[in-house]
Automatic annotation (TrEMBL):
Gene Ontology MF: a single term: transaminase activity
Pathway(s) this gene product operates in, as recorded in its UniProt entry: Alkene biosynthesis; ethylene biosynthesis via S-adenosyl-L-methionine; ethylene from S-adenosyl-L-methionine: step 1/2
CDD domains (alphabetical): AAT_like (cd00609)
Enzyme class: lyase
Record's protein name: 1-aminocyclopropane-1-carboxylate synthase
Species this chain originates from: Ficus carica
Pfam families: Aminotran_1_2
The keyword Phosphoprotein belongs to this UniProt entry's keyword annotation: no
Coiled-coil regions listed: none
Keyword check for Mitochondrion: no
Amino acid sequence: MIYYTYIYIYVCITLIELNFILVQELVEFMSKIRGNKVKFDANKLVLTAGSTSANETLMFCLADPGDAFLLPVPYYPGFDRDLKWRTGVEIVPIQCRSSNGFRITSSALEEAYLQAQDKGLKVKGVLVTNPSNPLGTTLTRDELDLLIDFAIDKEAHIVSDEIFSGTVFDSQSFVSIAEVLNDRNLEGSEVFDRVHIVYSLSKDLGVPGFRIGMVYSNDEQVVSAATKMSSFGLVSSQTQYTFSRMLSDKKFTAKYLKENRKRLKRRKEILVSGLKSAGIKCLKSNACLFAWVDMRSLLSSDTFEAEKELWKRIVYEVGLNVSPGSSCHCTEPGWFRMCFANMSEETLGVALQRFKAFAETLIRSKQQQQQSAGKCYSRTRSLTRWVFQLASDDRETDR
Ligand SMILES: Cc1ncc(COP(=O)(O)O)c(C=O)c1O
């Protein structure tokens, strides 16, 4: 009996040590991604089974059923599941539009807040993805300042999902919310405790199947509750061991991040220039594994029905699986998210060739339609009503 007790204690100590080592490596890795401009504290980090679990855990910790979180649209479609399904939390959209590159404005933030209030919902906070899924852009310092001011003013929380932080090709332009808190000397203030970061290795190391995510919170109570809740989504000890070894190899991680960014940048450029040659533009982006593509010129009308019709044609006729903007709650029809990182360069080339042929045919037929409509229009204008009446098959009145 004593023998088994010893073994049990030994195993427990080993697992705690393992957790400690991985958490330590993770905070260092997160600092490295942010150019070592911010230091993270291992005691504030809770391991979760991916960011999916981290986001849901935070909703359980921060909101009651029926409370609301404000999210800029377009947003990652998985949030409807992760934030709402089991927690009963409501998402209220912050309307971002193409006219300013889908940036968050104070009026849009205020409008969303009022909209939630009109619906009788208590706003608990704002959740952003930085860099953004699906836009592939990083939040500007002004936007981050705006969010912090809003959180101070409304006593709200900020959840910053920074799952794509290691994919920023232009590393100078990624600013974490943690950095802004530091720069504004907000440590120790009330709002400091209301800022929570979500991260996972799924995207930056390309390992979504291993389920390594985390909640990083400045609030002790949130850390404590999230730690208890993490039992529902643990990271296996084998995974913890593997990744603590991998992350401890600093030469490897530095090389990996650099090479990954270089390759993503190149892929994005190939996609953007390929689409440009087909007459299609993308939102200017600097991060992530995808581009936000403006296919409004390919729509048969300015509606979500037309977007769906186009999406179906791209899937069935071109053989490409792209995400329509409506799935990300975009309010303007015609935007699509196109991934460029989940295939070889050769496959990307084939995809672009096919897409270009499709887009060119579509644009040509639209132009022809417009031209014939134009001809018809000019004919209608050059001929008199009397001629039309005579030419019509329906000439009841003439008989
Ligand atoms: C913004 C964002 N958050 C969370 C997730 C979920 O990531 P994970 O695989 O770590 O659960 C994703 C996955 O695509 C995502 O894009």
